[in-house]
Structure formats: structure tokens, C-alpha cells
TrEMBL record:
EC number: 2.6.1.-
Protein name in the entry: Aminotransferase
CDD domains in alphabetical order: AAT_like
Keyword tags: Aminotransferase, Pyridoxal phosphate, Transferase
Listed GO biological process terms: amino acid metabolic process
Species: Apilactobacillus kunkeei
Entry keyword Cell inner membrane: no
One MF term in the entry's GO annotations: transaminase activity
Entry annotated with the keyword Transferase: yes
Cofactor: pyridoxal 5'-phosphate
EC primary class: transferase
UniProt domain Aminotransferase class I/classII large: residue ranges: 37-386
Amino acid sequence: MPNLSSSLVGKHNQRLNALAPSGIRSFDKKISSIDGLIKLTIGEPDLDTPEHVKQAGIDSIKNNDSHYADQTGKKELRDAISNHLSNKYDLKYDADSEVIVTVGATEALYSTFQTIINKGDKVIVPTPTFALYFPIIEILGGEVIKVDVSEDDFILKPEKLKAILDEHGDSVKALLLNYPSNPTGVEYSKEDLAGLAEVIKQHPMYVLSDEIYSDLTYGVKHYSIANMLPEQTIYLSGLSKSHAMTGYRVGYICGPAEFIKKVGMVHAFVVTSVTNSAQVAAAEALSNGENDPVEMAKIYQERRDILYKGLKELGFSMPEPKGAFYMFAKIPAQYGKDDENFALELAKKAKIGVIPGSAFGPGGEGYIRLSYASSKEVILEALKRLQIFMK
């Protein structure tokens, strides 16, 4: 096994030295060796990819669909994305010039940030939130403005956004929104988004709208800020959550044609194109699987209701999730605010794996995130163990 030449030690991108490891992944790894652990940690759907979607991917392979796809994505998938967004959310994107297919939503995020960030640019990120956003911005030379919204029902309010923009001026390049939210499950209403749009349109800035969980909502209609600010919004999503396709790695970016042309350059340099069979499966999911997320959402909602009721009875407090499949629960006061220690004790003594809330940035301290992308039986067993632990 080769060792790196001593003359090369330290000769790498120095921004990497300042990046913290993923709090979600590192904590999950820390507790995963515990025997008998019930894991409510990772946001991984336990449901299977629909059969018709899998078959489409299989057929693609059998039909020798093995040559380079268009760098912006297969035409059939771009058409399916455009039609899906138009039919379900009334979003109008031209499949040929305003849609690009990416290797999951993660690449969509990276390529988008790479396209817009110059050294010193600032990005506003309401927290607590999915912490992957922070290192991507920082490694590209940007600065994250973390805005704790935990005291505002986990929603960024227009007056708070205005105050930040008044303070930082044109150095703010973008606002990142994620809704329904990971980790809280909170959804922005049409009124919430309209208030933010009124502030944003007065400034030369992008809105990066990560709506990966938009197809999994409970009792509310999902609206996109892209309907209100199409000229400033970059819409990001994918099929990992909606169709239980995390391993297929298919995401997409939609926005004004001028922007898509630029982000397409970054995308082409990074990945060339997305795997053919995964794109064919994704096209099938969006074209003929519109009801698949509806059925999955019913299952998740039943689990949400069980977990929410059980946690409330044990003294936890939390917003009732309106989307995604996470519960962000505030630890009862008698256990203090050290969420990492609480989560470790929970793993060791009750054999329940959760993620400490501090992994999601300011405002997450004193909370734990539980994923209910697990079976009803697993959730009931976790609640039983938790009840014994808290006695």
C-alpha cells in the first residue's frame, strides 16, 4: 500500500481543513455497532422502488442502452420532468433549455453552488437544516449566513430576511430554502412564500429551492416559490425520496435557460452524464408512477401519527410534520440540552438510534431527529423502549 510522498503532505485544497464531517453520518457510524440497535437515523426510505420502475431500468440494460446519454439528460426524462412539474405544481419549464438531469439532488446542489458562488459570496441558510449545504458552500469559497429560525416555528420570516439583507447588502448571492424540511418536516405555506418573495424580488439574488420531499406531504398542498419568482429561483429536486430510489441517484435542476446553460457546463465537467438505466427508470416513475408517492405518503403518514402521539405522551414537544419523514423532537427539560449525550445514552441503554439536533446547525441544540422511514412495527418497538428508558 503506497504512502503519500512527504513532499505532498498538506498540498491539497486548504478549505478542506476547515470542513467538519457530516454530523449525521459520523454519529450514525458511532452507534451502528451496538447490537440490537433500532436505527431511526438515516433518511433512507424502507419501501421498495415500484416494480414498473425497476422493470424499466432492467429493460434499458437488456436493450443495450449503453452509450453516452445527452449531457443534459435523456430527452424522455427531461420531458417527463417538465410534464410532472407542470401537471402537479403548475411550474413551466422547457424540457430542452430549462431542465438538466443530475446525479442525485446532491450533485444538483453542488453544481448549482459551483455555478453561482465566487469567493466571498454569502448564502443565507435558515437553520436547523440538512447540514450538507454548509460544506458545499464553504469548499467553494462562499460564506454561510446561518439563521436560527427555531423560535419562529422553524419558518424564515420576511422581516428577519429583510434585516439580514439590509445588513449584508449585495454580498448575499443566494437564499437556500428546503421544504418540506429535513429535519423538522415543516412545510412553507403559500402565504409564507409570498412574504419572502416580496423581500427577495427587491434584491439581485438567487433562491435555491430544494424541494426533494415535495411529493410526500400530509394534509397540505405543496407550493413552490418558483411559481412566484421564476426569474430568480433555481428549482432542485429528484426521485430518491418520492419513489424510494436513493440508489438510482437521479436528481434535476430547473431554472431560466441562461442559468441552465451555465450550470450545464459545470455538470458536464463533473459527471459527463447520468447512468442510462437510472434515467429510463426515472422517466417511467414520473410518466407512469404519479400515484406511487401518494401511496407511500399514506404509509408515512400512519407512521408519523404513531410516532408523534407516542413522543408527545412521553413529554417531547415538536412541530407536527407536514411533509418528509422526520420528527424533530425537543428533549424534555429534565434531561438537559446536551442532545449528543442524550442520543448516545439512548443508543447505549435503550438501543434506539437517533441523530442529535445539533448536527443540523443553530437552533437544533436540545433536539433529536427521528426518521419514520421505518416500518410501523419498528416504530412501535422504539416507542416501547423509549418509554422504559425514560422511566
